[in-house]
Design brief:
The complex is a heterodimer. Helix content of chain A is 37%, strand content 21%. Chain A is an alpha/beta fold. Chain A has a nine-stranded mixed sheet, sandwiched between helices. In chain A, strand 7 and strand 8 form a beta hairpin. Chain A starts with a helix and ends with a strand. Chain B is α/β, with parallel strands linked by helices. Helices cover 48% and strands 12% of the residues of chain B. Chain B is built from twelve helices and eight strands. In chain B, the strands form two sheets. Chain B has a five-stranded parallel sheet, with helices on both faces. In chain B, strands 2-3 form a two-stranded antiparallel ribbon. The chains are: A alpha/beta, B alpha/beta. At the A-B interface, helix 3, helix 4, strand 3, helix 5 and helix 6 of A face helix 2, helix 4, strand 1, helix 5 and helix 12 of B. Strand 3 of chain A pairs antiparallel with strand 1 of chain B, so a sheet runs across the interface. Chain A: It holds the Pfam family Rad51.
C-alpha cells in the first residue's frame, strides 16, 4: 500500500532494525547461515510428529530476549487449526528462562502476535489486513503458519469438480504470502499435514524420477503448484518406531535449490524440543 | 464467498456495486485483492472512497490479531480445570479436563468410554455444580446408570435430583442433527439466555465416530469436509465459550481407494480433531 519514496524509507528502516536470524535453529537446516530473510520453510509430516512443538521451539527462540539467550524478535503466528496451546508455550518459556517470573513471561509474550482463521477465505483476507501490521512493526520478521493444509478437504468439497476452483483460495493465499515475504523480508515457516500416504500393501515400484529424499519419506505433494514453487526448504518430520533410541523424532531437512539434505533427531521434553 | 451488496458496509452504495460488477468485481475477495488505483480509473469512482471501503471490509471479515501477553491474561482468568471424578485419570490429564480444550477419548468398542463419560458428567454436575451437555449418538446413555453413579457419591436425594437436572441429554443420530445441535448451543451461549441451562462447562459427545463413519469412504470428499467442519466447530466452541469438550471415538485406518486427483490412502479419519 505504501508507494514510492515512503516505501523506500520504510524498507531502509526495516533492514537497519533487522537482526540476523542465522542462529534461529542451526540443527534444522542443511547448510550454514540459514535461514535468511525471504526463505519459505515447509514442515511436512503426519500428525504427532512434532511439527507444532517445533514451532513452539522457534517461537521461544525468537521471543526470549537476547540477554537470556534468545533473539528478541517479534513473531506473528497464524493459527488455522485452533490448535495453539498458550499454556504449553508458557511452560516452555518457564523452563528456558533463568528467572521464570510472570513479568518476564509477559514481556516475552508481548513479542508474539496471534491470529486464528476459520476458512481459507478468512485466511486470505486476514493476510491482506496483516500487511499493515508488518509495515507498522519493522522488527516483525518471522511469520509462522500452522497449518496450511487445514482447509484442504473443505476447499476440495466446496470447489466441486473443478480443480482450479478447489485450489483457488489456497493459490491466492500462496501468491499473497510470497508477496508479503519478498516485500517485507520475512521468513515464513508453514506446516502441512501428510494427508496422502501410500497404502501399506501396495506393490508400487518407485518412479525413477523420485529424488532421494522423497523415496526416504514417501512425500506426496497435494497442495497447489504456487505453494510448491515458493518453498525454499522442506523439512520432513517422522516418529521413530524403535524404542531403543533415546531420541523419538527425526527431521530430514532439504534445501530444495541446492539439493542438500541433512538428517537429525530430537526429543520433546518439558522445556520443548531438544536436539 | 461473500458477495458484495449494498449496505454490507457504510460507504458501499448500490451504484458503486453496479460499477464494480461491470468490471468483474463481485465478491469481497475480488475487491480486496484488486488494485484500487486501477479500479478507480476504470469505474470512475473516488480512490479515497474505495480505500475507505476496503479498510472497513477488511476490518469486518478478517480475523483480528491479538497480542500474546493479553491472550495469556485472558486465559489465566477464564480457564478452569474440571476434575473427572477419578484421581488416576486426573493425574493422566494433568489435574483434569481443561476448559477451552477438546479432550478426545479413544478406544475399541467396549473399552469403557461411555462409562468414563457418564462418570465425568456425574462428577462435574454433582461435585462442581456446573451444567453438562451430553450429546448421545449411539443410544448408549442410560439415565439409570448415571443415577447409580450419583447415588454412590452422595446419599442426599435432593442433591442427586439437582445433579440429574443439571445434565441435559440431546440425542443426535446423524451429522446434520449434531451440527444443528451445536449451532443451537452456540446461539444460546452467544445470547447468554438465562434458562434452565445455567453455566455450561462441559460438553460430552459420545460418540463422534458413530456420526462420521457413515460419511467416509467412496470417492466423495464431502464426508471429510464435514468431518473437518465438525472438528472446527468443536474446537471453536471450546475456545470461545471456555468449555471442556470431550468427544469419544474409535481409531481405525481407512483406505478410501483411488481418489480423483491424487492417490489414496487416508490415515485415521479422526486426525482432524
Amino acid at each position: 500500500m505504501t508507494s514510492g519514496r515512503l516505501g523506500g524509507c520504510r524498507l531502509l528502516a526495516r533492514l537497519e532494525g533487522r537482526s540476523s536470524l542465522k542462529n534461529l535453529e542451526p540443527y534444522l537446516f542443511a547448510e550454514e547461515g540459514s535461514p535468511v530473510h525471504g526463505d519459505v520453510i515447509e514442515f511436512h509430516g503426519p500428525e504427532g510428529t512434532g511439527k507444532t512443538e517445533m514451532l513452539y521451539h522457534l517461537i521461544a527462540r525468537c521471543i526470549i530476549p537476547k540477554a537470556e539467550g534468545g533473539l528478541g524478535v517479534e513473531v506473528m503466528f497464524v493459527d488455522t487449526d485452533y490448535h495453539f496451546d498458550m499454556l504449553r508455550l508458557v511452560t516452555i518459556l518457564e523452563n528456558r528462562l533463568a528467572q521464570g517470573t510472570e513479568e518476564m513471561i509477559k514481556q516475552c509474550l508481548g513479542r508474539l502476535f496471534l491470529v486464528s482463521c476459520s476458512s481459507s477465505t478468512q485466511l486470505l483476507l486476514t493476510l491482506y489486513s496483516l500487511e499493515n501490521l508488518f509495515c507498522a512493526h519493522p522488527s516483525l520478521c518471522v511469520l509462522l503458519l500452522d497449518s496450511l493444509s487445514a482447509f484442504y478437504w473443505v476447499d476440495r468439497s466446496n470447489g466441486g469438480e473443478s480443480l482450479t476452483l478447489q485450489e483457488m483460495n489456497l493459490k491466492k493465499c500462496a501468491n499473497f504470502l510470497e508477496k508479503l515475504v519478498t516485500q517485507h523480508h520475512l521468513i515464513l515457516f508453514a506446516t502441512t499435514q501428510t494427508l496422502m500416504q501410500k497404502s501399506a500393501n501396495s506393490a508400487e515400484s518407485f518412479l525413477p524420477l523420485k529424488l532421494p529424499h522423497e523415496s526416504d519419506t514417501d512425500y506426496r505433494p497435494y497442495l497447489c503448484k504456487s505453494w510448491q514453487q515458493m518453498v525454499t526448504h522442506r523439512v520432513f518430520f517422522s516418529k521413530q518406531c524403535n524404542s531403543g533410541n533415546s531420541k523419538d523424532f527425526t527431521v530430514v531437512s532439504c534445501h530444495l535449490k541446492r539439493n542438500q539434505i541433512v538428517k537429525r533427531s530430537f526429543s520433546v521434553a518439558e522445556c520443548g524440543v531438544q536436539f | 464467498m461473500v458477495v458484495l451488496r449494498a449496505g454490507l458496509c457504510p460507504g458501499l452504495t448500490e451504484d458503486m456495486i453496479q460499477l464494480l460488477r461491470a468490471n468483474g468485481i463481485r465478491t469481497v475477495v475480488d475487491f480486496v485483492s484488486s488494485d484500487l488505483e486501477d479500479v478507480a480509473q476504470k469505474c470512475s469512482l473516488s480512490y479515497k472512497a474505495l480505500v475507505a471501503v476496503r479498510r472497513v471490509l477488511l476490518a469486518q471479515f478478517s480475523a483480528f490479531p491479538a497480542n500474546g501477553a493479553d491472550l495469556y491474561e485472558e486465559l489465566k482468568s477464564s480457564t478452569a480445570i474440571l476434575p473427572t471424578g477419578s484421581p488416576s485419570l486426573d493425574q493422566l490429564l494433568d489435574s483434569g479436563l481443561y476448559t477451552g480444550e477438546v479432550t478426545e477419548l479413544m478406544g475399541a468398542p467396549g473399552s469403557g468410554k461411555t462409562q468414563v463419560c457418564l462418570g465425568i458428567a456425574a462428577s462435574v454436575s454433582l461435585g462442581l455444580k456446573q451444567h453438562v451437555l451430553f450429546l448421545d449418538s449411539t443410544g448408549g446413555f442410560t439415565a439409570s446408570r448415571l443415577y447409580q453413579m450419583l447415588q454412590a457419591q452422595t446419599e442426599d436425594e435432593e442433591e442427586q435430583l439437582e445433579a440429574l437436572q443439571r445434565i441435559q441429554v440431546v440425542r443426535v443420530f446423524n451429522i446434520y442433527e449434531l451440527l444443528s445441535a451445536l449451532q443451537e448451543l452456540r446461539d444460546r451461549l452467544s445470547q447468554q439466555v438465562v434458562s434452565s441451562m445455567g453455566p455450561l462447562k462441559l460438553v460430552v459427545l459420545d460418540s463422534v465416530s458413530a456420526v462420521i463413519y457413515p460419511l467416509l469412504g467412496g470417492r466423495q470428499s464431502e464426508g471429510l469436509a464435514l468431518m473437518m467442519q465438525l472438528s472446527r466447530e468443536l474446537k471453536t466452541l471450546a475456545r470461545e465459550f471456555s468449555l471442556a469438550v470431550v468427544p469419544t471415538g474409535i481409531q481405525v485406518e481407512l483406505d478410501i481407494g483411488n481418489g480423483d486427483v491424487l492417490e489414496p490412502s487416508l490415515v485415521t479419519p479422526t486426525q482432524g480433531l
